[in-house]
Amino acid sequence: MNLSNSCKRICFKTSGDWQSGKWGDEEMGIIYFILNPSSPAPLLRALWLTISLSVLGLWGVGTPIMAQTPSTLQIAQSLPRLTPTTPAAADQLNQGIQLVQQGKIPEAIAAFQQASRLNPKLAPAHYNLGLALRQIGQLQPAADAFYQAIQADPDFAIAYANLGAALLEGNNLPQAKDYLERALELDSTSGIAHYNLGLVLAQQGEVDNAIAAFGRAIPLSSNAPEPSYHLGLAYLQQGKIEEAKKAFQRAVKISPKYPEAHYNLGTILFNQGDLNAALEAFRQSAAANPNYANAYYGAALTFIKQNRYSDAQQVLQYAKNLYTSQGNTQWAIKAEQLLEQVR
User: Fold this and answer.
1) Secondary structure class of 13 (helix, strand, coil)
2) Cα 88 to Cα 279: distance, rounded to the nearest angstrom
3) Rounded to two decimals, what is the model's pTM?
């Protein structure tokens, strides 16, 4: 299972706090942000799976796997046939879960790898290995592990969804779409699969279908702001401003610390002439992530519209410094040009 492109990851290092509602008077934090990532971030479903040895010994094939989440859930999956190494493999699998809970991811990876070697048909071992590898940024090995999970269990819906997400993150859109559609054939209630499929469709230019996919994801992933945010972006592509505005508002209601959603909401409000509301949205964007240079640039434009030139100069200078430190020469130049006009 090969990824067509290597993953470009986004890193955030934030400090400082902008709690006041007064722009231009607060000390900003030190910032690192990669502006305008080349592709949106897919979501993976982090559902760690463990197997009870007593259940294995009593029931064998056809027994439900126990899914370890904050509460224990039953999911219908078929266990592999028992082999002489099955108890040892299951023991390694469960040890891996314990190591994950202790934050010992490299040790957990070793345990999952041992479990999959002892019993190559133990699908949860491959699946958990994929989650752990993805957690440390090993995208290609994670995709390989998810692929091995569906080879061991062709009806493993969650593994198909996460394999599709990994392929999407690697920009392998055709295969990502295939596996996400297969995940939805097996489990049509997977909000993660609908969302990731929407990302694929949006990148392929199928905006109407992407909107439909995001719309299906929203009620199935009610605590996730990403489907609403990307629904807003899709509506913007179609020029449906009010629909986009509602989608961004829903995203920030679910997650108030969503800088990109606040920023896009602020941009809409700015263009609609609601400058005070736009300024507040840009302030919320910067408060959510002081790394986000666009928030300061948007605030500067708003201050200029309000004839608050001193405030505009301050945040423009800050935006310029951010763009420069991030290597975004184009927008650093734009900020400098606007700064000269304000002066």
Assistant:
1) strand
2) 60
3) 0.77
- Integer Cα distance of 50 and 56 in angstroms: 11
- What letter does residue 70 receive in the DSSP assignment? S
User: Residue 164 corresponds to which amino acid?
Assistant: G
Q: Which two tokens stand for residue 242?
A: 């009010």
What tens digit of pLDDT does each residue of 236-292 get? 999 999 999 999 999 999 999 999 999 999 999 999 999 999 999 999 999 999 989
CB atoms within 10 A of CB 28: 17
Which tokens hold the place of 332? 């650093």
Whether the Cβ atoms of residue 31 and residue 322 lie closer than 8 Å to each other: yes
Contact (CB, 8 A) for 51 and 90: yes
Q: Where are the beta strands (DSSP E) in 130-206?
A: none
CA angle 39, 227, 281 (to 5 degrees): 85
Quote the crossing angle between the two packed helices 207-220 and 191-203, to the nearest 10°: 160
DSSP 67: E
Cα end-to-end span (Å), the chain: 56
Q: Nearest 5°: phi and psi at 68? A: -90, 105
Angstrom distance (rounded) from CA 280 to CA 263: 10
One-letter identity of residue 288: A
Distance between CA 248 and CA 261 in Å, rounded? 5
* Whole-number Å distance between alpha carbons of 56 and 72: 17
CA 179 to chain centre: 18
Q: Which residues of 223-242 are buried (b: 16+ CB within 10 A; e: fewer)?
A: ebbbbbbbbbbbbbeeeeee
- Structure tokens belonging to residue 14: 């934030």
Phi then psi for residue 13, to 5 deg, are -130, 110
